[in-house]
């Protein structure tokens, strides 16, 4: 006896052909959403990092200039991007090893080095 554990959508086309479509599972949808969030958070972090390294540090202390305002906004954007990136990377698992892996990955990415996972 076969057990049915999947749901499929079946439709008959006007020409008589049968079309079967399997809906995406919740787990697959969640994994795709997590991967997309990680991809977007990495892109946002790299954009903020590039803006940050273009800044002159002396602009931070000159509060009368517009450059100071840009400097502080860029630092804020980098901090927010870093937080989003970390959350997407560790997925709420705040074990010290997970956070260490995140920082290792981030540092290698900033330095342009390859990241290798110990398997």
The main sheet orders its strands as: 1-2
Query: What percentage of amino acids are in beta strands?
Result: 5-15%
Q: Output the helix-strand order.
A: EEHHH
Shape: elongated
* Ends distance: 40 Å
Number of helices: 3
Helix-strand category:
mainly alpha
On the 0 to 100 scale, the average pLDDT is: 81
Query: If you compute it from the alpha carbons, what radius of gyration comes out, rounded to the nearest whole angstrom?
Result: 23 Å
Main beta sheet, described? 2 strands, antiparallel
* Low-confidence parts: none
DSSP helix fraction: 55-70%
Number of strands: 2
Description:
The protein is mostly helical and 119 residues long. 58% of the residues lie in helices and 7% in strands. It is built from three helices and two strands. It has helices at residues 26-53, 66-90, 96-111, and strands at 9-12, 18-21. Strands 1-2 form a two-stranded antiparallel ribbon. Strand 1 (9-12) and strand 2 (18-21) form a beta hairpin. The two termini are 40 Å apart. The model has no long low-confidence stretch (mean pLDDT 81).
Main attributes of the structure:
mainly alpha, elongated, 119 residues, two-stranded antiparallel sheet
Summarize the entry for a quick read:
This protein is mainly alpha-helical and about 120 residues long. The protein is built from three helices and two strands; from the N terminus they run E-E-H-H-H. It has helices spanning about 25-55, 65-90, 95-110; strands at about 10, 20.
């Amino acid at each position: 006896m076969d057990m049915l554990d999947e749901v499929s959508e079946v439709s008959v086309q006007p020409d008589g052909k049968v079309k079967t479509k399997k809906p995406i599972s919740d787990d697959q949808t969640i994994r795709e959403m997590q991967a997309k969030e990680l991809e977007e958070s990495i892109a946002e972090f790299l954009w903020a990092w590039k803006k940050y390294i273009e800044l002159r540090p002396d602009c931070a202390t000159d509060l009368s200039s517009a450059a100071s305002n840009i400097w502080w906004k860029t630092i804020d954007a980098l901090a927010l991007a870093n937080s989003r990136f970390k959350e997407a990377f560790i997925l709420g698992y705040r074990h010290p090893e997970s956070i260490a892996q995140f920082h290792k990955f981030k540092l290698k990415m900033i330095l342009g080095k390859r990241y290798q996972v110990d398997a």
